[in-house]
């Protein structure tokens, strides 16, 4: 047992939020598995060029399960780890804000793909809230334009065909290099450059754990691969760290 707490980097994908009622994209019941054409709603080229895609996108945003979703045991366990004094940095591919809702410090959560709760104009760059834009949709505007310049409004998320924010990606890379423990949770590790953070951490000597229902391309370099349901596996990982460093036992979870 040691009092020195390792720095923990956590890369999370859609799989961590499925137990909160938010479907993933590529899983057996994923959004794109059930409706391959839905991928157009998340593709920049189609969104910018086709008003019908934009109209469908606004309706999908209004119906997004994340509006009513609550953090599950995995999100809560990661927040508990931070409260226990561990240096935790969460790098998420999700746009649902559930890590922050669970109690993780917002500045310690890097949202690689942005957030669904804001909008920005693709013409003048002005930003606003998604709720304001959706209120306009509900009032009869199927494709609300920017009130300042008339440009196309888009969610504050990164679509396919768009580059990730350079500063956010640079911060994520620095975290992967500096950590002693790297957990990849609920991500297929097929989308670059996010997936490469796993290899960066491994190269720098971090202990790699992958928690995902399906195999990933990085399983071969992992120190541990966990197939147990995420809302059970993550609390158990947290309990193990807390016990090893004299912080007691985290709540929730189950056997791996």
TrEMBL record:
Domain of life: Bacteria
UniProt keyword terms in alphabetical order: Metal-binding, NAD, Transferase, Zinc
UniProt domain Deacetylase sirtuin-type: residue ranges: 1-244
EC number: 2.3.1.286
UniProt cross-references to PROSITE patterns, sorted A to Z: SIRTUIN
Pfam families the record matches: SIR2 (PF02146)
Keyword Metal-binding part of the UniProt annotation: yes
Top-level enzyme category: transferase
InterPro entries: DHS-like_NAD/FAD-binding_dom, NAD-dep_sirtuin_deacylases, Sirtuin, Sirtuin_cat_small_dom_sf, Ssirtuin_cat_dom
Gene3D superfamilies documented for this protein: SIR2/SIRT2 'Small Domain, TPP-binding domain
Protein name listed in UniProt: protein acetyllysine N-acetyltransferase
Organism: Catellatospora bangladeshensis
Encoding gene (name): cobB2
